Amino acid sequence: MNNPRPIAAARDLDARVTAPPSKSVMQRALVAAALAPGVSRLMNPLLAGDPLVLIAALKAVGIPARIRTDSGVLPGDDVVMGDDVVTGGAVMTGDGGRVVEIEGGGGRIPAEAVRLEVGNAGTAMRFLTGMLAAGHGTYIIDGDERMRRRPIEDLLRALRALGAAAESVGGNGFPPVGVGGRGLPGGVARLRGSRSSQYLSAILLAAPAAAGEVRVDLEGDLVSRPYVDLTIDVMRRFGVEVTAAPSGPLARSFTVPAGQAYRPSVFSIEGDHSSASYAHAAAAVAGGRVRVDGLHPDSRQGDARFPEILARMGCRVERGPTSVIVERTGALEGIEADLRGMPDMAPTLAVVALFARGPTRISGVPHLRLKESDRIAALVQEIRRLGGEAEEHADGLTVIPRPLHGATVETYGDHRVAMAFAVAGLGVPGIAISDPACVAKSFPAFWDSFNQIERSR
Predict the structure, then answer these.
(1) Is 374 one of the catalytic residues?
(2) Which of 272, 344, 414, 435 is catalytic?
């Protein structure tokens, strides 16, 4: 599926799709399960590129991980889902009785020395760095060329402050990293919050494996705060409490008291609001209505608020017990949107903004330059490729609507760029998406779901 994928323009949609499981929740649950004693069962798992990288890493460091289907436990690295068989960690599609079983070591990392390759899976890089720093073996975690340009020194410095061995192998503050060897004694660390909330999440998730209390004090503003709330929620559901001070969204200090341990759990992965955003955006761009099922009404996911952004632009939003409907019947209006709590929505909003009356200013997301691509630069380049106009800013971009035309959109191997610009193709004939398979990183069934939307007109 590496040839460009053409998009069929559409109008007046009437579609109903189901959200896939949440990538963010899945990866946090994998780490908690790996550090719990005994077997945890993750129901409704997301078996996409990033979680599969993390599952493979857990197995490599000696933590048994099994993927079960209705037909039983899968042998070796083979994964069977529905009628599809994929071997060796490739991406899977299909459905039916999927469960991931993790046999955690109660905070112990069995392997003594392992080198891991995580490609461009940024969450896996950061979460594994924290988790394996708590181990007594020696571990090297490396990635692809893009990963080697994504900074990680802030996390390594904080882990060292907590007594762990953690270093950039090249001495430049970037992967590969070397961690482990003396465990995680605990203590107090200071952490800049401006680059990635995943640094804080990585430390919190690893903290129950520490010998003593772990406290992290923030310096500066914390980006993507809802993801930290999501981390704390997953930890609580595995039996570990995090104390935030002051309480509420202005917390500057996070403490995991000593003496806590994850408990093995049966944990269901909720639907992904990030993936649902493309269906919501489709209604905004093409008109009509799209219903997305499988969404938790009280989700801690920051992207659950994206439909309210569309409502500000002129869409009607209806929330049900397990679904969200977005409908557009009139014109869209440009807005100003601070997306610091939902940075992954910047590509989606940028595309919707192409079809609005008046410019849209997206702010609060300077760290988008450190994602799978430099997303700010990528968005500006591809908007211009379609005939639109956009201006880069230090903390985001401004989208200025112009008459658009068809073109093949470059995706830079970035799943969110690919899925966002697929939505643009509903409103402009002649758009195609290069490297469409890159969506497998978070949403392997994206094109199947998108087909339902394309054909609903």
Answers:
(1) no
(2) 344
